[in-house]
Amino acid sequence: MTSSNAPLTKLNIFSLKGAQMRTFHITWFTFFICFFGWFGLAPLMPTIKEDLHLSKSQIGNIVIASVSGTIIARLIIGRLCDSWGPRKTYTALLLCGALPVMCVGLSKDYTTFLLFRLAISVIGASFVITQFHTSVMFAPNIKGTANAIAGGWGNLGGGITNMLMPLVFAAIVGLGYTQHQAWRYAMLLPGLLMILAAFLYYRYTKDTPEGNYGDSIKGKKSASVKTDYSLLKDWRIWALSLAYAMGFGMEITFDNVAALHFVQEFRLSQAAAGFWAGVFGLMNLFARALGGIFADKIGKKQGMKGKGIFLAVMLLFEGIGLLLFAKAPTLPLAVTAMISFALFLKMVNGATYAMTPFINIKNIGLISGIVGAGGNLGGMLFGFLFKSNAITYSQAFSYIGLAVIATSFIVLFTRFGKQEAATEKTATRMQPATVS
């Protein structure tokens, strides 16, 4: 029988019993709220573009800024999780991130808006804490599944944000405010939600199943662990970072530009474009979890090598789907292709973090931060494609599709090692995986 202060070997998604499951649910919900702050502006960009008289190049810079600050933040946050603990780290990030979210409405021109967008991008580091916290709460046999479900349900916030924020905007306009005022006031809601989430996180979660850093034996040990930077020589970390750049990097890029693409390419209204962009995000309800579940099942029989092959195949299908989306001549075909590549993209994300915690169990925070930063680096680089006046959005999607396909072969030929596979198999045999 599992001890109440040990990592869980069973994931009962309908339970709030124990520090592990309570932390699991608060963690994914907090990550969900973070998306409202991080991408709340994205579905409102058609209005913001007109209000601030933004050019395509300037919008591209804003897209780049929305993810670039997260790269450094994820590296720092990963280290803080190892030393300071996820509970305090998440609380501080939420409170600091809420400030630029609520103050972005003070923007009067492109420059001030760009700076606020850069500050808001730091919120994206919340993902690293989510994955770190879930990893320490669950045993190896179910770790990938738990990470994928927590990440997926949190990423669902990207879809709900695209759908809900235009409605919040419309409601404010309905109260008699101008469009110039409405998008600014709309951003107060995500900021207030983040402050509420900070209170919930600090009050009701624990750093580890045994307690918080500093007041438990486990916590004291965790806080004193020294980061082993020599592991940066491990190519597997960089292969997973590249895979995550093609998965999550593409996801946040699409969250940023989807509404604009649907407005420009298919002449949709801001609300309709936000809805279809939201459908992309809604796939996180199950797709990322599927990636983690399948990866765990494959890992049980074939170890890390099998997981790597699975990840490579998902990347290949994602790339093909992206190419089809880029060439789609009508809205129905575009939506069909979008749902297709979204399924595989989110499974890529789930599979990547079903592998990440097993690279080095003593430095999960650092490795999670590096792989997570890879996702944002991909998003930043993709942003340059959407900034160029010489490249259409459809062409940019095509180029990214080709890059994803190339990455699938890199991952396929990466040797993830037999020792880790054996360790994983042993842990799995000792602890049967269960999801209920």
Automatic annotation (TrEMBL):
Family annotation (Pfam families): MFS_1 (PF07690)
SUPFAM superfamilies: MFS general substrate transporter
Domain Major facilitator superfamily (MFS) profile: 23-419
A GO BP entry: nitrate assimilation
Domain of life: Bacteria
UniProt entry keywords in alphabetical sequence: Cell membrane, Membrane, Nitrate assimilation, Transmembrane, Transmembrane helix, Transport
Name of this chain's protein: Nitrate/nitrite transporter
Subcellular location: Cell membrane; Membrane
Gene Ontology MF terms in the entry: nitrate transmembrane transporter activity; nitrite transmembrane transporter activity
One of the record's GO cellular component terms: plasma membrane
Family that this chain belongs to: Belongs to the major facilitator superfamily. Nitrate/nitrite porter (TC 2.A.1.8) family.
TM segment ranges: 21-39, 59-77, 89-107, 113-132, 153-177, 183-202, 235-254, 274-296, 308-326, 332-352, 364-384, 396-416
Membrane topology: Multi-pass membrane protein
